[in-house]
Amino acid sequence: MDNIEKYLKKNLSEIHAAAPIDIEAVLAGTHRKIRKRAVRRKVAYLAPVLGLLLMLTYVMIPGNGEDLTLPGGELMIAGWESSWTNTNSSEAEDVIEQELFNQGIEYLIDEQFTSYSADMDDLMDEEDMEALVSFLREA
Amino acid sequence: MRSDSNISLFEKVQNRDPRAFDQLVREYSPELNNFILRMVSNVEDAQDILQDTFVRVWEKSHQFKGNSSVKTWIFRIAINLSYSHLKKRQRWTFSVLEDIKELMSGSDPVKDTEQNFQSDLFEKSLVSLTPRQRAVIVARIHEDLPFSQISEAVGCSVNAAKVHFHEGKKRIEAFMKAQVGENG
């Protein structure tokens, strides 16, 4: 051991020689860190499994049976697709699109009208209709 | 005798016995804290690293193969964590020289006794070392660990650890000579 090593040994044993240590605090801190790391590890392991479970739940559990697409919507989409894929000139595209759009609108109106007619049938019977007609005549 | 009792205590820790673990913490904390404090020179950081060391001991106890003593194995974990801490701290400081200037400007020659001056000077000389040099020097001189164990703990070859040790010594010597020249 040379002089520098002796100097280092002496000084290393002297610095912080009286530094106090609270063992109970060390124990508490160590246990807290072990618990925290265990929880973090569990989350890291379980996250992909939970994600997969959520996806499976979404795929396997059906909704309430409602179809969210609008009536006539498919026809309009088909029209758009047809116009973009089957025509070349923009004028011809416009004509076809207009035609398909009108068809879509007519379909929608027809659907709505039918449903309104059905509602009216439900609401009014013959007596109501007669009362309504006589009221209109008097008016 | 102590070594045998430590092995049986550590076997209980390996079998996940919390009471044995607490006993291990109580037994090694004072010595380990002194060692880490010499590596990082900060009481709060030392306590934090001490706790992290025991966390690793609990988590990795099954990896202990008995190639060294339990104490050496635990000290290697402490060296590794202290070295990582020193590297991280160095990254956040502007430079080692800035650290030294700050320490020098904080000293009060009137208040400082000769002993304080010497110990301050010694701490400043440690700051002038690279993290790896400091880790190797403290582990080798204070704990008398073999270079083979130190090199594993700081992640370098045995020869590289020896080089860091000698370079560190030379740097401390040069630093002390410069300080003595300035003040004398």
CATH architecture of chain B: Orthogonal Bundle
Number of folding domains of chain B? 1
Structural class of chain B: mainly alpha
Radius of gyration of chain A: 40 Å
Number of helices of chain A: 5
Describe the global form of chain B.
elongated
Strand content of chain A: under 5%
Annotated CATH homologous superfamily of chain B? RNA polymerase sigma factor, region 2, helix turn helix motif
Radius of gyration of chain B: 18 Å
Give the topology string of chain B: H per helix, E per strand. Answer: HHHHHHHHH
Reading the helices and strands of chain A in chain order gives: HHHHH
**N-end to C-end Cα span of chain A:** 125 Å
Number of strands of chain A: 0
Précis, in short:
The complex is a heterodimer of chains A (139) and B (184). Helix content of chain A is 80%, strand content 0%. Chain A has 139 residues and is mostly helical.
Task: Give your account of this protein's structure.
The complex is a heterodimer of chains A (139) and B (184). Chain A is mostly helical and 139 residues long. Chain A has five helices and no strands. Chain B is an all-alpha fold and 184 residues long. Helices cover 80% and strands 0% of the residues of chain B. Chain B has nine helices and no strands. In chain B, helix 4 (70-92) packs across helix 8, helix 5 runs antiparallel to helix 6 and helix 6 packs across helix 9 (158-183). The longest helix of chain B has 26 residues, at 158-183. Chain B starts with a helix and ends with a helix.
